[in-house]
């Protein structure tokens, strides 16, 4: 009989413990209000609250543009095109660059810095430094690579797909290219007036010593 006591006790213990998984509720069940429902917690009796002044709206998936979820065929087609494009699908104009600069300043500048050197304010406070946009590797990277890093993240950088709309990701790509070009543009390809200003800003080269005959 003693031979069976041990296995029986272990079996009974296993059966008893199997029912303890949710003995501590740990927020499995909690009171909550449903959207557009009623609540005695607030003076107006409504669950849904008005966003505080200054709330910044950001993209949140395919339905972010409409509370009903009906974006329309054109918007859906644009999103599909943007996410499938291998190269920049938008014309490179000032409007695109300004939009890219605005989005870059919100989402990228804190780590990558305004110049794209990778020494933003967050990095100065101890966060790992991202690579400089001006490195040869990133200057030679494709537009799609930059887009995919924004979409999926890389290293300690998280994905920004839930915050940056596909069209805005391409705008950021265009602005990153402008930052890179600002340090690696060929003088003979610049407009004449800009080239003249660039030459004036460059430090004067020291005169070469004359060689003895």
From TrEMBL:
UniProt xrefs under Pfam families: Cytochrome_CBB3 (PF13442)
UniProtKB keywords: Heme, Iron, Metal-binding
Highest taxon listed in the record's lineage: Bacteria
Family matches, as PROSITE patterns: CYTC, PROKAR_LIPOPROTEIN
Cross-referenced InterPro entries: Cyt_c-like_dom (IPR009056), Cyt_c-like_dom_sf (IPR036909)
Domain (Cytochrome c) ranges: 95-180
GO molecular function list: electron transfer activity; heme binding; metal ion binding
UniProt-recorded name of the protein: Quinol:cytochrome c oxidoreductase monoheme cytochrome subunit
Origin species: Pusillimonas noertemannii
């Amino acid at each position: 009989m003693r031979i069976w006591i041990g296995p029986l006790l272990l079996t009974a213990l296993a059966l008893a413990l199997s029912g303890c998984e949710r003995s501590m509720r740990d927020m499995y069940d909690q009171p909550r209000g449903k959207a557009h429902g009623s609540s005695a917690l607030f003076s107006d009796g409504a669950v849904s609250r008005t966003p505080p002044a200054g709330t910044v709206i950001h993209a949140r998936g395919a339905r972010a543009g409409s509370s009903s979820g009906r974006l329309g065929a054109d918007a859906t087609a644009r999103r599909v095109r943007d996410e499938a494009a291998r190269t920049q699908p938008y014309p490179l104009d000032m409007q695109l660059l300004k939009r890219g600069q605005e989005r870059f300043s919100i989402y990228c500048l804190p780590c990558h810095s305004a110049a794209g050197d990778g020494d933003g304010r967050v990095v100065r406070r101890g966060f790992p430094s991202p690579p400089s946009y001006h490195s040869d590797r990133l200057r030679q990277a494709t537009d799609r690579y930059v887009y995919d890093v924004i979409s999926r993240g890389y290293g300690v950088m998280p994905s920004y797909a839930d915050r940056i709309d596909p069209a805005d990701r391409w705008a950021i790509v265009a602005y990153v290219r402008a930052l890179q070009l600002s340090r690696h543009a060929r003088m003979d390809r610049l407009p004449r007036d800009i080239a003249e200003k660039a030459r004036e800003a460059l430090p004067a080269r020291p005169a070469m010593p004359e060689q003895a005959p």
